[in-house]
Amino acid sequence: MIKSQLAKNVFSLLVLQGGQYILPLITFPYLARVLGPANFGVLGFVFAIAQYCTLFTDYGFNLTATKKIAENREDKHYISQIFWTTMTSKTVLLGIVLLGLLLSVIFVPSLNDIALILAFAGIQVAGSVLLPVWLFQGIERLWAVTVSSLTARATSVPLIFLFVHSPDDLWVAALIQSSTSVMAGLIACFFVRHYRAIAFTAISPADVKEAFRDGFPIFIATIAISLYTMSTTVMLGMVSTHTQTGLFNASDKIRNAITSAFLVLGNAFFPRVNVLLKESEAKANAFLRKLMVGQCILTLLISVALFLFAPLITELALGDQYADATPIIQVLAPLVFLVSTSMIFGNYMLLPYGYRRIYTQVPAVMAVVHLVALIPMAHYYGAMGGAVTLLTTETIIFFTLAIVLLRNGIMGNVLRGEATTHA
Known about the structure:
single chain; mainly alpha; globular; transmembrane helix
């Protein structure tokens, strides 16, 4: 039954990622051509800000709430309490985000010209709050996430072709894309009711406070990671030209479309590691060994292929306006391997085995290093400078996490499928 449920979840996520890859693949080249590099850069800049805001409202709940629910999936009252506490906490954070966006538009002159586009970022964040991915992860009903997300994304495809025809339609493209998350959230609410996984349960301010306290280390680590994964687009939008931002945004979207497949699969693997860990450390390590070996080989081959076929991919996906994107894609190609493997090191190995401090410290330190290096690199070398900085940061993180796991004996025990010792 356990293996059957995991297989269903993995299949659901493969369908989800396949749809999330194919549907944007239909509209991404169209938007890149119709909007042009400059406006496509603005679109990428705004939605990078939206991603930051979404990370803020997530506050690490996608890991902490998922873990609690997965470990207590038979206790409906407990799950209900976690659900309402998490949703209340995320709503509080959403209010802070919307206030922050309003103040940014008022007091940051460079954002005044794109105030309307930036407002749509708030819509996207609100939609993300409505979609309780962490609940479906915990109860291992990820098909609901697949249906919700793909239905909403599929709806946006014809709308983009119908209403976006020139650079002047930038605001229309932004509105359509931001509304997708709201639709997905509303559909997900239907599935929450359908599965009857929760009941109304009163919560107290103390419950919310405890949720914030518990999620804080994960929140810091997540924000730190985002500073070197998503800050490049934002920083380019601030210190370079919209065209350079557009070149990087287009290149990184191609790389990220591949990497996201493995990150999304983590929604199935993370709760499974925690469930197995409660049963037996040896079982959890054996599972991790198979996952790590298989994924590392696959992502390494994909990185090599992306590097070799970058010129063809640029020509087919982006067109002549983005000829300068080819070397940028080649610099970013190794990230498919580095990012997906680092996720295994951090989310599946360090975190479940109690190494929260290291899990938080490594990305926090590297976030500062990345930003210090990124500002001059983005200013003087544009998109290429951002790509080189990101590759350097991810390489250092990869080797740092690997060394930590080796020194603490976790890596060796995982590769042997043996029990390890908690921190």
